[in-house]
Amino acid sequence: GGCGQFFEGTAEQMHANLTQILGTLPKDTKVFCGHEYTVRNLKFALKVEPENEMVKEKLAWARQRDDDDLPTVPSTLQEEFLYNPFLRVTEEPVQRFTGRTDPVEVLRTLRSERDNFKKPKERPNPQAMLAFDWGLFGPFLEKK
Question: How many CA atoms within 13 Å lie on the side-chain side of 14?
Fold first, then answer.
């Protein structure tokens, strides 16, 4: 549901990578992300395309997987082209969100917006909450 930051590259390079390299692979190519940001990325995708039913469905699925402590990878290129805004830079709703029509400028604006997208509220780790409930952290929390 996302794409990497432009630390050492440019929007032009990322666009070429996404369209000329990834975009030409078979649609059933499996995509594995380097970090588990799927829920956060899909929350951003929903901000970009609030009417996109595929984003809504994938976000609900990803939240359930996250709740069950299961991975959300892999996906396929075919799926990503339905809900990943970074692969949808020529789609009218994505362009409307960015106020741009040039695909590279749409990508640049999306990445900037994603970089500034607020972090979701952090949920406590379920295992840590159980440890607190069972008093396992008590000895570490007592003042000496």
Answer: 22
Tokens (6 digits) for 24: 């030409």
Length of the chain: 144
126, 115, 87, 95 alpha-carbon torsion, rounded to 10°: 130
pTM of the model: 0.80
Residues 143 and 86: their CA atoms lie apart, in Å, by 50
Residue with token string 């909450």 = 129
Report CA 105 to chain centroid distance, whole Å. Answer: 20
Q: CB–CB of 32/73 below 8 Å?
A: yes
Distance of alpha carbon 93 from the chain centroid:
18
Query: What pLDDT, in 10s, does the model give residues 121-135?
Result: 556 667 777 776 777
Whole-angstrom CA distances from 89 to 4, 14, 51, 61, 67 are: 15, 12, 16, 24, 31
Instruction: State mean pLDDT over 95-113.
Output: 98
Task: Enter the tokens of residue 23.
Answer: 């975009």
Cα 15–chain centre separation: 17
